Automatic annotation (TrEMBL):
Classification via Gene3D superfamilies: 3.40.1280.10, tRNA(m1g37)methyltransferase, domain 2
Subunit structure: Homodimer.
Organism of this sequence: Algoriphagus kandeliae
Taxonomic classification: Bacteria, Pseudomonadati, Bacteroidota, Cytophagia, Cytophagales
Record-stated family: Belongs to the RNA methyltransferase TrmD family.
Reaction catalysis annotation: guanosine(37) in tRNA + S-adenosyl-L-methionine = N(1)-methylguanosine(37) in tRNA + S-adenosyl-L-homocysteine + H(+)
NCBIfam families per record: PRK00026.1 (NF000648), trmD (TIGR00088)
Key words, A-Z: Cytoplasm, Methyltransferase, S-adenosyl-L-methionine, Transferase, tRNA processing
A GO biological-process term: tRNA N1-guanine methylation
Protein name (database record): tRNA (guanine-N(1)-)-methyltransferase
Listed InterPro entries: Alpha/beta_knot_MTases, tRNA_m1G_MeTrfase_C_sf, tRNA_m1G_MeTrfase_TrmD, tRNA_m1G_MTases_N, tRNA_MeTrfase_TRMD/TRM10
């Protein structure tokens, strides 16, 4: 997979992609991420990328021309499966969206700033608009890093067995169960006995029940989506 990101603050994206799993994905040749500075496509001596909003009001708007120039330059080098705009009024990002994006080959992500981009950019180029939640960030960069992280870790080979994505929260509409490591007893707090038993079927059963309990308590909305009910729980027990 290849991800290109367009930003007016490219420095904000240096950290996330030079560490840990994302760095390893790049080193293994499984995913590459390139960040483009929108200012390199700015017009005129001032390198201007934003301007006042027509109709007045507070806040600047990102101009059409630099973004169009940047996107068209990148499109001449690559066919994008999606051209994504990070915006609080987009579709809310979730695990199913991460799963489907992880199947794509080439993604282009545009990070908004100020009051956002001129609407004509959205109409002409953008194929998908993503929000990472109902709050407003100062720019789309951190949101783009969140999306890229969630997507890249799903690419086969990026994670090793111990960090397999198959047991993540949300993959089956259930939250993940609690996890423990050594020591088995700490300050009078004990790890559940079954996890020390070595009995795989019982351990799986315990984890499933703990997932169900956690999901019902914390996320009744997810529990409803899981399609599981009392009869499934009883069936598993038999
Ligand atoms: N830009 C600003 N806020 C955002 C959000 N919540 N999601 C995606 N992009 C954003």
């Amino acid at each position: 997979m290849h991800i290109d990101i367009i930003s007016v603050v490219p420095g904000l994206l240096e950290g996330p992609f030079s560490h840990s799993i994302l760095k390893r994905a790049e080193e293994k040749g499984l995913a590459t991420v390139r960040v483009y500075n929108l200012r390199d496509f700015a017009i005129g001596k001032q390198k201007q990328v934003d301007d006042y909003a027509f109709g007045g009001g507070a806040g600047m708007v990102m101009m059409v021309e630099p973004i169009a120039k940047c996107i068209e330059n990148l499109q001449s080098q690559r066919d994008y499966d999606e051209i994504i705009y990070m915006t609080p009024d987009g579709e809310t990002f979730d695990q199913p969206m991460a799963n489907s994006l992880s199947l794509q080959k080439n993604l282009l992500i545009l990070c908004g700033h100020y009051k956002g981009v001129d609407e004509r950019i959205r109409e002409r180029y953008i194929t998908k608009e993503i929000s990472i939640g109902d709050f407003v960030l100062s720019g789309g960069e951190l949101a783009a890093a969140v999306v890229a992280d969630a997507v890249i870790r799903l690419i086969p080979g990026v994670l090793n067995d111990e960090t397999s994505a198959l047991t993540d929260s949300f993959q089956d509409h259930l939250l993940a169960p609690p996890v423990y490591t050594r020591p088995a007893e700490w300050q009078g707090m004990n790890v559940p006995e079954v996890l020390l038993s070595g009995h795989e079927a019982k351990i799986n059963e315990w984890r499933f029940e703990a997932s169900v309990r956690r999901t019902r308590e914390r996320r009744p909305d997810l529990w409803a989506k899981s399609g599981l009910g009392e009869s499934d729980l009883k069936k598993r027990k038999k």
